Every structure is written in C-alpha cells, then in structure tokens.
Amino acid sequence: MDKARLTLDPAFAIGAVDRRLFGSFVEHMGRCVYTGIFEPGHPAADADGLRTDVLELVRELGVTLVRYPGGNFVSNYRWEDGVGPVGDRPRRLDLAWRSLESNAFGLNEFMRWAELAGVEPMMAVNLGTRGIVEAAELVEYCNLPDGTAAADLRRKHGVARPHDIRLWCLGNEMDGPWQIGHLTALEYGRLAARAGHAMKRVDPTIQLVAAGSSKADMPTFAAWEATVLEQTYDHVDYLSLHSYYDPESQDEASFRAAAVNLDGFIDDIVATADHVRAKLRRQKRINLALDEWNVWYQSRFTEPEDRPIEDTPALIEDDYTVTDAMVVGNLLISMLRHADRVTVGAQAQLVNIIAPIRTTPGGPAWRQTIYHPFAQTARLAHGTVLRAGVQSPTMSTGRYGEVPVVDAVATLDERSGRLAVFAVNRGTEAVPLDIDLRAFPGLRPGQWIRLAEDDPSIGNTAAAPDRVRPRTEEMPALDGGRATVLLPPVSWHALSFTPEEKP
Ligand code: AHR
After folding, report:
1. C-alpha to C-alpha distances, 325 to 25, 256, 282, 427, nearest whole angstrom
2. pLDDT band at residue 126 using 50, 70 and 90 as cut-offs
C-alpha cells in the first residue's frame, strides 16, 4: 500500500484564516426561505415565524456570514416589496425561478433572523432590472440613521437602529445568459462602477463585491474578469466567483478530485486581477469572494421555462452522500489553501436548496452529510493557514489527468497553540498518511474526527437523520514528532494537536 506524507512547518504561512470564509447563502428560491428558515405556524417557530430548530442547526454549523436575497432571484427583485406592513406587500411573479413570491419575508425579517443566527449579512443589489438609484436607496434604507427619506422609512417600519450592513454584492452572475437583465462585461462593468460609486457616497465604509464568472467554463471567463475590473477597480473590494460540481456530469474520479478544478479557477482569477492591477498601476489588491460553491446535481435540474408557475416549489433539494461530503471538505481545503486571496466564502445554499440543512414543512430539520465537514472546519480552522507539503500516490481522472489521492491543509491558532490538519482521501483505496510535525516540538495528539462509511453512497434522511455523522478516533501517539494515520477510501479528516500542558 503506497503511503502519503504530510510535512508541516510554522514558518510556511499562507495567510490568516478570515472567518468570513465560512459563509452561506439564503435565496428566495424554492423552500430555502419559506418552510426553510421561515414557517409561521410550525411547532418550532418563534413569534416572528422563524424556525428555531433550523436556527439551532445554523448556529451549530458555525456559519459566520449569509448572502441574501439571491442569486438569480435578486436580478428581478424590488427590495421595497419586502418591507413595511406585511398585509400591504405585493404578491409577485419571480422571473428567475418562475415562482410566486408572497414577500411575507423581506429585508427586516432577514436581518432579525441574521441577528438570532449570529451571522454577518452580505446583501446583494439588483443590477439586472434595476440600477444606481435603487441600489443607493437600499444602502440608505439599511445604513443611515435618520433624516433621509429611505432611512426614515426604515424607522417608520419599526427599525430604529440602522442595520449597518458592511458587505454588498453588485448584482449576481451578470455574465450568464440565464440571468434576468444579463449584460456584456463592459455594460456590467460600467453599471457596477456607477452603482458602487453611488452606494459608497451613501456609506463610504461599505465593501463591494463585483460579480465575476458564474463558472470556470463560461466562454467569457477571464476576459469578463479583466474587463469588469478595468471598469470597477477603484470602487470595489472583492471580485466574486461561483463554482458548483455535478457528480453526474463527469467521471467519478474527476468529481472526487473537484478541488483540483477550484484550485486552478482561483489561481487564474488571482492572475487576472493582478494583471489588471499592474495595468492600472494600482497598489490595492482585489481579493476574491467565492460566494456560491457546492456540490450540485445540476444535470437533474429542470429549467424554469419547463416548469409550471408555483408557490414555494421544492427546487433542487439534492440528497447528499458521503462522497459529496468528502468533496465539500476538499473544497474547503482548497479555499483555506488560498486564504491569502480568497477571504469571503458562501456555500450555496443554507437550507433545502442544495443545502447542508434540510426540513420538511411542519416536520423536522436534519443535517445532510455535507453539514459535517463544514461544521468541523468552521470550528477548528483559526489563526494562520500553513502550506502543507504533501507527497501522495496519484489517481487517474478523466478531466485533470493524474492527481494526488491525498490532499491536505493545516491551520495554526497562535492564541491556543492548536494545530488543525484537514485531509481527504479522494481515492478508492485506503492510504496510510505519515504526518511529520518535527517542526512543532511540544505538541501532543488531540482529536481525530473522520467522516467515512463502508458505503460512500449513503446519506441522511428525515427518517435516518444521523446515519452518517463524524466519528472520533483514537489518535496514534507522536513518535519523534511523527504519527501515521490510516485514511479509509473516500474519507474526510480533521486532526488536531494541542500544546503539552506545562507541569
Ligand atoms: O444557488 C442556485 C443558483 O445558482 C443561484 O441563484 C445562481 O446565482 C446560481 O446560478
């Protein structure tokens, strides 16, 4: 059996772990909001209709930030529809998903939910069917204390204190022909620059995210980023990227190695952003917001045109397997590996829609398999990301050729002294992993948490919600600063090492 080797050294730092990496996404789509986070009349709902069972799972997941209200939905959304007395709110046809939107849940309900969930909001503005005025007025409604029409309207709606939202998305996936109000890179870049300029005039402390490519294989990829950044460079702080991985649209080994694709996608965008920086002769570096990512069985998706108009349809409620969870854990490893440039993340989405949390209307909420690597990584990844020297046997993939079977990254929390190693075995054979920690004298083995099942195709259901869950293993002793752990096929691992207690 070929071994893999992991060598770590505190001298090889990549960057700080930005806690905004552990974000998620709530879109007005399917059952994410309605019967997901909000269900008046549910036995677990609070007085505002917020599901407290879901809130508990969100807090346990360790989500730090939530993007809202879309997604494709935002590109034909009027934020004014979702504020003020609920009885006065219009019922609209949402063109993104051809669904009926009651507007019973809107901005102020979301902000109350975000406060209870303990997450930072990331608000998106509509640059599909709307523009500069509506975006600037939304910032005014959210962030100014009083004395202007929009701020006073918020106060009239019963919210005295400004929401003080720091992070804003300038539209969503405007490169996609499916997007309502889809634009060319130049059209979008000019609009985003002007909207961003106006929004920062309202509140100069906000941070703006320009919309990058909706996937790595968009025909406009890289040219889109270059043009958009040339137009927006001085106004924006982040550039977004979206990346979904479909288990059924590629060979299985390529799917298991999806993080190879994400690594390359990120590297290419960083190169493009830095090219524009050099061309414009600017000092500022643009960081990346991976504000939609996940496993998504996208080939099963029915296009909106082919579905009837419905209220709260059950859309893309994918059931996840152990393999999917390993891939999600590996995508998080890739994000951490790029911690010097990827500083915002939002897994899409939070509840029901391709989500770690599932619910049934009137019934329970449960954790899908992908919940677990996210929750453990969010809990353990603190401090500084360390470059992991990995030597690994390789596996053949249809898309990426030969790739390492084992992938890993580590974080060192300088405050507690805890070292956390995150590792995956993407192959179908068990692999022993030698961990070399000779550069960390004084560490002792802590916890080894692993997600692995004999059958990696199983998942959790409402009837068997904890069939797949992480198990805590006995960590082998460190022998001269080295230990060996056996990684079962298709498995995800978090191993922590803590400072020896002083006598
Ligand atoms: O998350 C589902 C959809 O995927 C989002 O609305 C859109 O931005 C992306 O294409």
Report:
1. 18, 10, 40, 14
2. very high
**SS3 track for 135-192:** HHHHHHHHHCCCCCHHHHHHHHCCCCCCCCCCEEEECCCCCCCCCCCCCCHHHHHHHH
* Pairing relationship of beta strands 238-245 and 207-210 according to DSSP bridges: parallel
The predicted-structure confidence for 385-423, as pLDDT tens digits, reads as follows 999 999 999 999 999 999 999 999 999 999 999 999 999
What is the reported pTM?
0.97
Mean pLDDT of 50-60: 98
| Joined tokens for residue 470 | 């992480």
Q: What are phi and psi of 384, to 5 degrees?
A: -115, 140
The proportion of the chain whose per-residue pLDDT surpasses 70, expressed as a percent, equals 99
Residues with CB under 6 A from ligand 1: 27, 29, 70-72, 172-173, 214, 292, 348-349
Cβ atoms of 274 and 266 closer than 8 Å: no
Beta strands in 437-480 (DSSP E): 443-451, 471-473
Identify the H or E element spanning 207: strand 207-210
Catalytic residues: 173, 292
| Preceding omega of 71 cis (within 30 degrees of 0) | yes
What's the rounded Cα separation, in Å, for the pair 104 and 429? Answer: 51
What's the rounded Cα separation, in Å, for the pair 488 and 490?
A: 6
Closest CA to 209 of 242, 243, 245: 242
DSSP secondary structure letter of residue 38 = B
Three-state DSSP class for residue 87: helix
* Beta-bridge mates of residue 342: 288
Report helix, strand or coil for 244: strand
Please give the distance, rounded to the nearest whole angstrom, from the Cα atom of residue 493 to the centre of ligand 1: 29
Q: Which two three-digit tokens encode residue 233?
A: 């460079």
Q: How far is the CA of 310 from the centre of ligand 1 (A)?
A: 18
- The rounded Å distance from CA 271 to ligand 1 centre is 25
Termini Cα distance of the chain: 41
> What is the per-residue pLDDT across 166-209, written as a single tens digit (0 to 9) for each?
999 999 999 999 999 999 999 999 999 999 999 999 999 999 99
> 3-state DSSP call for residue 340?
coil
Q: How far apart are CA 269 and CA 266, in angstroms?
A: 5
pLDDT confidence band for 503 (50 / 70 / 90): low
502: pLDDT strictly greater than 90? no
Cβ distance 175 to 185 under 8 Å? yes
Report the residue among 33, 173, 318 best suited for mutation to probe ligand 1: largest number of ligand atoms under 8 A from its CB: 173
Please give the backbone phi and psi of residue 425, each rounded to the nearest 5 degrees, phi first.
-110, 110
Instruction: Pick the residue whose CA is nearest to atom 2 on ligand 1.
Output: 71
Q: What is the pLDDT of residue 500?
A: 85
Alpha helices in 241-321 (DSSP H): 252-256, 258-280
